[in-house]
Amino acid sequence: MRISQMVLLAGVLASAVNASTVLTLNPESGGVSGQPGQVVGWGFTIQDSQFWVTVAGMDFCSSFDANMDSFPCNSTHPVPHGTYLDFTPFNFVDSPPSSMGGPDMSQLNFSYNPPCDTIGPCTGTGAFTIDAGTPIAALLTGVIVVDYNLWLGDPTSGGVRQGGDNFITANASVLVTPEPESLMLMGTALAAVGFLLLRRRSPWLAQ
User: Fold this and answer.
1) In terms of residue numbers, what domain contains 198?
2) Exposed/middle/buried for 186, CB within 10 Å: 0-12, 13-18, 19+?
3) What is the pTM assigned to this prediction?
4) How many domains does the chain contain in total?
């Protein structure tokens, strides 16, 4: 009886630990846009008022169930029309707790400067490259998944890890937009059609 109560208590504490972490994307809506062949991505903040956080990995997936899916999930639940590059291997992300409730760790802005090292730093969750030939106006939807660990104390200075890997998600999407040249051609074509229609209705233009 005592053992089962301890197991139950451990489960409750683990749930409470997991619930204490908040992920916010930048933009907060999770919606970004880009042209076929272009690289897009998201900035982010992670907030936890109780524990230190270390980020072990990130992915952009069509869906993710922490109880069912493997991580990284791009092989089992890929987002179509693109490939994702996780920035975590290039930037070890370390977050101290924030007692004031504000973001205590941030790579708020997305920046892609390969090779993503000290020469070309990359920040944010990672980079999603839109496939060339992706249909214009396609909306590629999914979730950003963060694999993270919680620590009691600074993990780089004697902190104690709390449990195993945790996962948190935030809705994200990529809207595929036309290239500027295509927009210019479209605008020219629409202007020409408009002029022809106006000419038919205006006798003085037809002369």
Assistant:
1) 180-207
2) exposed
3) 0.77
4) 2
